[in-house]
Design goal:
Elements (H helix, E strand, L loop, with lengths): L3 E4 L2 E4 L4 E7 L7 E7 L6 E6 L6 E3 L7 E5 L5 E6 L8 E9 L11 E2 L3 E6 L1
Parallel strand pairs: 2-11
Antiparallel strand pairs: 1-3, 3-8, 4-5, 4-9, 5-6, 7-8, 9-10, 9-11
Length: 122
């Protein structure tokens, strides 16, 4: 059974930065890893995705230019560097894996972590 584990969430002031990490036990195939977030009263939102090699990245419109996703080539760990955070970024952030392409729809990802809370205070 594949495992996906996130870490790095917490409380930060508006304008600050935070880095999330995600590690999976998936080693049998090459796939995209991604981050989604879920805030109260909102739908699950695509944040970013990265390819196996780390060379192909895709971002959601609301985080483009502020967040950066990275992945070591061929490794099962991905990072989400978040900068210029604002209260609208407050959410539970989920790491996902198992998609063959950088899909923005969560249904394409097979494996999910438990989520890590990010809270941005004003």
């Amino acid at each position: 059974q594949a495992h996906v584990v996130e870490s790095g969430g917490g409380l930060v002031q508006a304008g600050g930065s935070l880095r999330l990490s995600c590690t999976t036990s998936i080693r049998s195939f090459r796939s995209y890893m991604a981050w989604f977030r879920l805030a109260p009263g909102r739908e699950r939102e695509f944040v970013a995705a990265v390819s196996w090699t780390g060379t192909n990245t895709v971002y959601g419109d609301s985080v483009k230019g502020r967040f950066s996703i990275s992945r070591e080539n061929g490794k099962n760990t991905t990072y989400l560097q978040m900068s210029s955070l604002n209260p609208d970024d407050t959410a539970v952030y989920y790491c996902a894996a198992g998609a063959p392409a950088p899909y923005r729809a969560y249904q394409y990802y097979t494996y999910w972590g438990q989520g890590t809370q990010v809270t941005v205070s004003s």
